[in-house]
Design goal:
Length: 90
């Protein structure tokens, strides 16, 4: 996917921040970068096998986030509430 297309699809992100994030993902092996020395330069990005391995998990996590968005936490508990593993001593 071309850099300009990515920038348009990620609302509210500057070119600088998007470039930093893509470099980090490339360094970690999640995306690859292809540079064509044309005028203007053509830079495209794609996902690697490593990213494909975790794609299902990320899609499920996004689904939960969307489902829970706007819901009030249930049980009135927070950190340290019984059953949440924090603050329980034997």
């Amino acid at each position: 996917m071309r850099f300009g297309v990515l920038r348009k699809n990620v609302a509210g992100i500057s070119s600088r921040v998007l470039t930093e994030r893509l470099r980090t993902l490339e360094d970690k092996g999640f995306v690859f970068r292809h540079y064509e020395p044309t005028i203007p330069p053509a830079v495209t990005y794609g996902i690697t096998d490593r990213m494909q391995d975790i794609e299902k998990v990320l899609v499920q996590l996004e689904g939960l986030a969307r489902k829970w968005q706007g819901e009030a936490p249930k049980g009135g508990g927070g950190r340290g509430a019984p059953g949440h593993g924090a603050g329980v001593r034997a």
